[in-house]
Amino acid sequence: MPRTNKQTEKIIQEAVASFPVFATHLWHYLRLPSPTPVQYQLADYLQNGPERRIIMAYRGCGKSFLTAGYVLWRLRRDPDCKVLVISAAQDRADAFSVFCHDLLRNWFMVKDLFPSDTQRFSKVAFDVYGAKPDQSPSVRSSGIFGQITGSRADLIVADDVETPQSCETQLIRDKLRESIKEFDSVIKPGGEIVFLGTPHTQDSIYAKLELAGYKCRIWPALYPTEKKRVNYYGDRLAPKIASELDNDKSLAGHPVDPRRFGWEELEARQLSIGKSTFNLQFLLDISLSDEEKFPLKLRDLCVFRLNRERGPDKVVWLANGDKALDLPSVGLHGDLFYKPAQIGSEFLEYTGVVLAVDPSGRGSDELGYAVVAYLNGNLFLLASGGLRGGYSEVNLKKLSLIAKEYKVKQILVESNLGLGMFSELLKRYLGVIYPCSIEEVRHTKQKEVRIIDTLEPVLNQHRLMVDTNVITEDIKTTECYPGETRSQYQLFWQLTRITKEKNSIKHDDRLDALAMAVQYFTESMALTEKKAMDSRLSQQWELERQFIQGDNGLSIDAMGYAKSLEDLQKALGASTGGSNWLSDM
C-alpha cells in the first residue's frame, strides 16, 4: 500500500533528526540488508564526531556508501551546505558525486532537492533545489592533485586519498601532504573535514594528520589483543569495540562484524593479499614488530629435492620441529627451513618453466637469475644464482646453457636497465645454444614493495617449493665475496631482510629475479582461474536454461532447489535416471 504524504513527511522528519535512521532508509532503498552494528557506529560518528576527524575502517565495510548518505543528509537539513568530495583519482571522486546525484533523482527522501533547470546540473558539480545562488556548487568532486584553489566548502570528504599510487614514493607522499594542506584554505569557519580510508604504507598520511590535530577512530576487522590495544590502538579504538572487549577478553582475535566478514572470508583475504597488507587494510595497523617488518619467512617454504622435469602432484606444508632441515639458515629469530609433511606419489611434467634474469651493470651488483617451474598451483624453484661481470660473453653463454639445461620455455628479462640491449645480446647466444623466446618485463612500482607484494601471498599459502641444492649453491656461489658482505648477496638473506622501505637491502638481484618468475606465473594463474570460473558459470547457466525452457523433456519442477553447478548436474542425472536427487544430500 503506497504511503500518504503525511506518512512520508513523518518518515523524513525522523530521518532528518538522526543520520543512523536516514542511513537505514537508504540501505532499504538500495535493497541492502539493514546496516550492521559497525555501520551504525560509523553513522553515529559521522553525525556526532569532531570537526576534523579520520574514519579508519577495514576495507569493504561500506564507509564510502555511508558518507555519501551523510552528504545527502547534510543537504537535506541545509540546502545551502557546500560539499567538496576529494579522492586520490578524479574518477573515484566523480563516482561518489554521481552516486549522490542519482539518489537525488530517484529516492523519495531527497527527490525534492534535485536541481532545477536553472541550476548547475552536472553530475560532478551540481546544486540542490532550494540552495541560494553561490560561486561554489552544492556538491563538487575533484582528484587530490586537482585544482581546488578558490573553492569554498562547509564539508570536505576526503575519500581514500591514500592509495598504492598516491604513496608509492616519498616524493609523491610529500606532494600528497602539500595538497592536503590546501584544505585549510577551502574549508569555511566551523566546517568539517572528514577523512575516510585505510592505510597503504607504514608511513601513512593518516598518522601525520593526527599530529596536526585530527581525531582518529578505528574499526579493525578483528578484535585486537590486549597488548595491541594498549600499545597501538589506545583511545582511538571505536568505543563500542573497546567496551565489548572490556566485558569479554576472549573476543580478541575474533571478527568484529561477522555478518559482513566472517572467519573464512578474512582468512581467505589474508592469504590472498599477504599478512603485512592485511594488517594495514583490515586491522588498520601501521605499527611494525620485527615479525611484521620482515614479512618473508624461510619457514613458509617447502624444501626438498626437486626433479628438473617433473614435480609431485601434491605437497603438504607443516612447519613442525621434526620437519626442520639441517641446512644453514640466515633467517631471523630461529627462522628455519622445513621439509614438507607429505609429498604426492604421482609425478607429472611441469606445465611451465621460465628463466628470469635481472641484468646489472659492472658495479657491485650481480646479474641475478632464477629458474622456476609451475604445476598444479605450486611453484618450484629449480635454480638460482648471481653472476659477476654484467653483460660479459661468459655470462651470456652461461645463461643460454642454463636455459638449455632446464629446458625453459620462456626467458624473462627486466628491461628497465639498458633499454632492451641485454635481450638483443642474449638472443645471439640463444640462437646457437638453445633457441628460446624472450619476454621483456618493465616495472614502474617501487622495487621493494613489488617484490614483497608478489612473494608474500605465495609464501603465506606455502606454494613455493625450493630444491635443496639451491640453498647450498646460494652459499657456495657467494664465497668469492668478502666475509663481512658475503651474506648480502645470498638469495635467502635478501628474502628475509627485505622490507617495504626504499633501499632496505643493498643487493636484491637474486631475489628480484625470483619475484619476476613468480609474478609471471601468478598472473597466468589468475587468468587460468578466471577462465575456469567463466566456464563453470557458462555450464551452470546452460543447465538452468534447459530446465526452465523444458529442453529434452526436463522441467523447472525437476530442478528443485538446485543452485550450484553440482546440484544442477545431480538434478539432470535424476531427471534422466528417474531418482530424486535430493535424497543424495
Description:
This protein is α/β, with parallel strands linked by helices and 585 residues long. The chain has three domains: 5-222 and 231-281, P-loop containing nucleotide triphosphate hydrolases (Rossmann fold), CATH 3.40.50.300; 298-527, Nucleotidyltransferase, domain 5 (2-Layer Sandwich), CATH 3.30.420.240; 533-584, no CATH class. Helices cover 42% and strands 16% of the residues. The chain contains 21 helices and 19 strands. It has helices at 5-17, 19-29, 37-48, 63-77, 90-106, 170-181, 183-186, 205-211, 226-233, 239-247, 263-273, 275-281, 290-293, 393-405, 421-433, 447-460, 468-476, 491-497, 509-549, 556-559, 565-577, and strands spanning 52-57, 83-87, 121-122, 125-126, 139-143, 153-159, 187-197, 215-219, 302-304, 310-312, 315-316, 342-343, 347-349, 352-358, 367-375, 378-387, 410-414, 438-441, 464-467. Strands 3-4-5-2-6-7-1-8 form an eight-stranded mixed beta sheet, sandwiched between helices. A seven-stranded mixed beta sheet has the order 9-19-16-15-14-17-18, with helices on both faces. A hairpin with a 2-residue loop joins strand 15 (367-375) and strand 16. The chain is globular and about 85 Å long. It starts with a helix and ends in an 8-residue tail after the last helix. Residues 578-585 have low confidence and may be disordered.
